[in-house]
Design a protein that fits this description.
single chain; alpha+beta; Beta-Lactamase; Helix Hairpins; five-stranded antiparallel sheet; five-stranded mixed sheet; 16% strand
Length: 455
């Protein structure tokens, strides 16, 4: 409105001057005045229109022209708008830079693709994982696996693909295409190596447990069906019932070992340390081993270490019992089994040594795996669950110690529980007792003369 009033005021001023010239000077002078004034106004309008057009072609690189007359408020408003737009653009660019910097620090690779699967943008992780450089290049130029080509071509929202990347052997990556609005796609690459290992371990664990339980269940079901359907004598019945009892005990041991392993690996379980007498513990476990052996082996106990340690009694007892049970299972009749307690290299070491069949070198790296057996048939016949050494390893880890073993085929085995020096309680130093004085010898501080007088 103000601009209109200003323009009308200028026109009115020109008209008034023309009327004055016509009245007081001459009509010819008034015509010239009006002609020159309107031509000058038209030229000025044209000049400013050209300047604004010139500025609008590159508004970010050129300054607005200075305005006079009615153009001053127009250009002032344009300048204010340009200033606000520049500030908003600067703030937006800064925000985008912060977002890009944050996204670049993510461990997951992020790639934005257009409708033709060309790369529009990729963060640092994606560039490192897939070797992406530049933009507007097809993504299959960087990820060349055939399964990925089928995956990206299918374009199924929220679909996933697990692949191995040539640049990172031994790692497993999951590629995901989440739902996105519009024609663009977002490709996410995540390292799931640990998760894949856990999934494989979980599958193996379930398969192993199922396999271990299937055999005793089959035996129990078979003998139970026989007892129910056939008429058998008392001796056969007792034999079948004994087999059922044996298989049920095997299942019970498996369940107990699984529960113990789960308890040991639980984050919420705490180690209940207390001072523990070593000799009574080992003697009682050795007596249990003698009863289990039923006179088929020779046992020995050797104690050279301190009398007390700090440990969780139940867990340490379970570890030694497992080692003794394994020694009995794999030592032929007449063999020797011994327990040694000593200090070596500042560690307390409980060693269970046997003269059994030993273990070949290729099996040693996997001995502490769950359900791993050197001889599955022999272990199952002896009632082993395949979890003993895994339990022992976990117990020693909780005690800040380690499990060490030496074995060779035909030469026996020696399994050692190594406890750190902090868990050893030094034996008390004995206080010397003075020897009694011989008869007739005066005690210290006694006057011989007075003694003789009293005598």
């Amino acid at each position: 409105m103000k601009l209109l009033l200003r323009s009308l005021a200028v026109i009115a001023l020109i008209a008034l001057v023309g009327i004055g010239l016509d009245t007081f000077v001459s009509e010819h002078g008034a015509v010239w005045w009006l002609g020159i004034a309107f031509v000058a106004a038209a030229i000025m309008q044209t000049v400013y229109l050209v300047r604004l057009y010139h500025w609008s072609s590159l508004p970010r690189n050129r300054a607005l022209p200075a305005g006079i007359g009615p153009w001053r408020p127009i250009i002032a408003r344009l300048a204010r708008f340009v200033r606000q737009e520049t500030d908003a653009r600067t703030e937006l660019v800064s925000e985008l830079e912060r977002i890009h910097a944050a996204v670049d620090r993510l461990p997951d690779g992020l790639v934005v693709l257009d409708r033709y699967d060309h790369v529009l943008w990729a963060n640092d992780a994606a560039e490192a994982l897939h070797g992406i450089f530049g933009t507007r290049r097809p993504i299959h130029h960087f990820i060349r696996q055939p399964e990925f080509a089928r995956f990206i071509q299918a374009n199924e929202p929220d679909s996933t693909l697990r692949i191995q990347l040539p640049a990172y052997p031994g790692h497993t990556y999951e590629l995901r295409l989440p739902r996105t609005p519009g024609d663009q796609k977002l490709l996410i690459t995540r390292d799931i190596t640990d998760q894949a290992k856990l999934d494989a371990m979980r599958s193996d664990f379930v398969a192993n447990v199922s396999h271990e339980i299937r055999t005793p269940i089959t035996v129990i079901a078979g003998f139970a069906e026989t007892l129910l359907t056939l008429e058998i004598d008392e001796a056969a019945r007792r034999e079948y019932l004994g087999s059922i009892l044996k298989q049920s005990q095997t299942m019970q041991r498996l369940v107990e070992d699984l529960l113990m392993l789960s308890s040991l690996e639980s984050d919420g379980s705490t180690l209940e340390d207390e001072p523990l007498e070593v000799q009574p513990l080992l003697e009682s476990l050795l007596e249990e081993a003698r009863l289990l052996s039923q006179g088929r082996h020779h046992f020995a106990l050797r104690l050279e270490g301190p009398r007390r340690i700090v440990a969780a009694p139940g867990e340490l007892e379970s570890a030694v019992r497992n080692l003794l049970t394994n020694a009995i299972r794999y030592t032929p009749e007449g063999g020797r089994i011994g327990i040694e307690w000593r200090v070596q290299d500042s560690e307390g070491r409980i060693t269970v040594r046997d003269t059994g069949i030993g273990i070949a070198a290729e099996h040693i790296p996997r001995l502490t795996e769950r359900f791993y057996r050197v001889d599955r048939g022999r272990s199952r016949a002896n009632g082993g669950t395949g979890l003993g050494l895994a339990i022992i390893k976990r117990i020693m880890h909780r005690h800040q110690g380690r499990l060490q073993f030496e074995t060779a085929p035909g030469k026996g085995s020696a399994f050692t529980l190594c406890l750190p020096a902090a868990r050893l309680v030094p034996d008390p130093v004995p206080v010397p007792v003075p020897a009694p004085a011989p008869a007739g010898t005066a005690q210290a501080g006694t006057d011989p003369a007075s003694t003789a007088q009293r005598a």
